[in-house]
Amino acid sequence: MTTKSTPTNDEQVSSPEQDISAEQLADDIVKEAEEQVEEQHEHAHEVLSEEQEKINELELAVATAESTVADQKDSVIRAKAEVDNIRRRAAQDVEKARKFALEKFAGEMLASVDNLERALQSIDREDESNKDIIEGVELTLQGLISSLEKFGVIAVDPQDQPFNPELHQAMSMQEAPDVAPNTVIAVMQKGYELNGRLIRPAMVMVSKAAPSVDTTA
User: Fold this and answer.
1) What's the half-sphere exposure (Cβ side, CA atoms, 13 Å) at 143?
2) How far, in Å, CA of 18 to CA of 9, rounded?
3) Helices 103-122, 131-150: inter-axial angle, 10-degree rounding
4) Residue 159: which residues within 8 A CB-CB, separation 6 or more?
5) How many CB atoms lie under 10 A from the CB of residue 155?
């Protein structure tokens, strides 16, 4: 009687069902690995998105802070410039007030100067009895003029000078053959300046050219 030998484990031949299970198992492993990779990729993308969002927020905060600092710096610069302008204007106003505070007072004193000068012109200098009077009036006049000059009041006496409409007021014009046209030939009343600013123009008579004579006739 013939005895059949039983195949060993190494000699066993795999069945189709066993082969399908192995392939399916391999597919499952690959799919699981792909899912893990995709999940990790999504997680990494989320992490990167959060980090980028934080970076964007920080950049916006920095830009806002820089803009605020720039605005504040401009405000400080403008405020400083405004303060400097106010100080400059105040100093100029004080200087003007100091220079021209005496303008009204000086104007009143000029009337006294005019009266003393007219008095000297009207006194008969040929009369010896008037000598003391003339001397007293002249001393008074010179003292008054010196006092005014100490406070910046200077006379404008343009005798024989070219007429200047900024300093002189022409009261009349007269032909003067030996004088260039537009020259002051007489001063009816002196002008005065206070610290370089005219407070009263000089009243003058101005020369004019003689009319041309037609000699061809």
Assistant:
1) 6
2) 14
3) 160
4) 184, 186, 187
5) 15
What is the rounded CA–CA span in Å between residue 55 and residue 115?
Answer: 90
CB atoms under 10 Å from CB of 6, counted, come to 7
Distance of CA 172 to the CA centre of its chain: 46
Q: Which residue has the tokens 């014009």?
A: 173
Full-model pTM: 0.53
**One-letter amino acid for residue 9 of the chain:** N
- Which two three-digit tokens encode residue 69? 């600092």
Question: In terms of Cα–Cα distance, which of 152, 159, 164 is closest to 197?
Answer: 152
What number of other Cβ atoms are within 10 A of residue 100's Cβ?
Answer: 15
Output the tens digit of pLDDT for each of the chain's 217 residues: 444 444 444 444 444 444 556 667 667 776 777 777 666 666 666 666 777 777 878 888 888 888 888 878 888 888 888 888 888 888 888 777 776 777 888 888 898 899 998 888 888 888 888 888 989 999 999 999 999 998 889 999 999 999 999 999 999 898 888 888 999 999 999 999 988 889 999 999 999 877 765 555 5
Residue carrying the six token digits 């830009």? 63
Q: Which of 212, 214, 192 shows the shortest CA–CA distance to 201?
A: 192
N residues, the chain: 217
Rg of the chain taking only CA atoms, in angstroms: 56
